[in-house]
Design brief:
365 residues, alpha/beta, binds 5-amino-5-deoxy-1-O-phosphono-D-mannitol, glutamine amidotransferase, carbohydrate derivative binding, EC 2.6.1.16, transferase, aminotransferase
């Protein structure tokens, strides 16, 4: 049942090319435009939307943080991203001019389901992005977009996350296409990139043994910092969660520009740093932040493009992803972090598929 892999988590990491290909294909027209026929949306639907709320838990929340960048950039509607267990007990300003998007692999997470009901109570229109057909969340939402990740068994979410990113990116393109806030050239550029993505994922998966080696050096660490800016910050949050969840090593993700406001005090030679640098608009700032932590003695693993000549000058070591559009980069840069979490857990002798204290589907509040 594990298809020759020692654990479900590794199997599911390696299923990402297929999961991504399947999720891309159903939303692509032959002419390279994007389609979500089941939504039945028109340009006019957006005349009644002022803001978008994304709410979810854990990894799905992290996918929402990336989607905020996608939607605001392409669709030009303000997006807020809320942790479901916080949103549902807040006094939200959600109205009937809000579109609420919930993201949930299982479709059964109770806080996400209740957050969706809360948003609907305020009149919001709703859409669920889920991996589970007929799940409670799929039934509760007005509209559903399915990720085609296939069953995810390991508690740590991997292929569900990358397919969520794909589905949310394509949804953002679709909304922008309807509203006329994006050029067809840009849509084609990104959809061409999405068609190539499974191949690019295969390339990044070749870093498996490299990440196993890096894991050897992380297993003794007490604290590991994950840094990024812009979309890379959201990816750093996911990388840190993955490591904590399966390796039980404390990890913290930080917006690299915030380091100076306190956290830099914690950086020493004993705190390895993982630095994600795929967002060209802020790469020079990111290089400065890497130099800051390196100057405090930290070993830095940089994650960046294969043609980035600068990154290696400042880091201890790098892991490279192919050069892709910077909206697509997060779907690749998270993969070395998934592998790193996996190997760190296995090398520490943990039950990587069933980490302590955690359940695959969180149906208690
Ligand atoms: O099924 P959901 O996507 O609603 O689950 C949400 C979180 O419980 C889940 O993503 C959790 O954070 C993962 N175990 C992280 O790997």
């Amino acid at each position: 049942e594990k298809g020759g892999y020692p654990h479900f988590m590794l199997k599911e990491i390696f299923e990402q090319p297929k999961a991504v290909r399947d999720t891309v294909q159903i939303h692509l027209n032959k002419d390279g435009s994007v389609t979500f026929p089941d939504l039945g949306w028109t340009k006019e639907c957006f005349e009644n939307i002022d803001n978008i709320l994304i709410t979810a838990c854990g990894t799905a929340y992290h996918a929402g943080l990336v989607a905020k960048h996608y939607i605001e950039r392409f669709v030009k509607i303000p997006v807020s991203v809320e942790i479901a267990s916080e949103y549902r007990y807040s006094k939200p300003l959600t109205t009937n001019r809000t579109l609420c998007i919930v993201v949930s692999q299982s479709g059964e997470t109770i806080d996400t389901l209740e957050a969706l009901k809360e948003a609907k109570k305020h009149g919001a229109k709703s859409l669920a992005v889920t991996n589970s057909i007929g799940s409670s969340i799929a039934r509760e939402a007005d509209h559903v977009v399915y990720t085609l990740a296939g069953p995810e068994i390991a508690v740590a979410s991997t292929k569900a996350y990358t397919t969520q990113l794909v589905a949310l990116l394509m949804l953002a393109l679709y909304m922008a296409q309807l509203r006329g806030t994006i050029s067809m050239d840009l849509i084609h550029k990104i959809t061409d990139g999405l068609k190539d993505l499974p191949k690019q994922i295969e390339k990044v998966l070749k870093e498996k043994d490299h990440m196993a080696e890096v894991a050897d050096r992380l297993i003794k660490a007490h604290d590991i910092f994950y840094l990024g800016r812009s979309i890379d910050y959201a990816i750093a949050m996911e990388g840190a969660l993955k490591l904590k969840e399966v390796s039980y090593i404390h990890a913290e993700s930080y917006a690299a520009g915030e380091l100076k406001h306190g956290t830099l005090a914690l950086i020493t030679a004993d705190t390895p740093v993982i630095a994600v640098a795929t967002q060209d608009a802020v790469s020079s700032k990111m290089y400065s932040n890497i130099q800051e932590v390196k100057a405090r003695g930290a070993e830095v693993l940089g994650i960046g493009y294969e043609d980035d000549k600068e990154l290696g000058k400042y880091t201890t070591e790098t892991v490279r992803i192919p050069r892709v559009d910077f909206f697509i980069a997060p779907i690749l840069s998270v993969i070395p972090m998934q592998l790193l979490a996996y190997y760190t857990s296995v090398k520490r002798g943990n039950d990587v598929d069933k980490p302590r204290n955690l359940a695959k589907s969180v149906t208690v509040e």
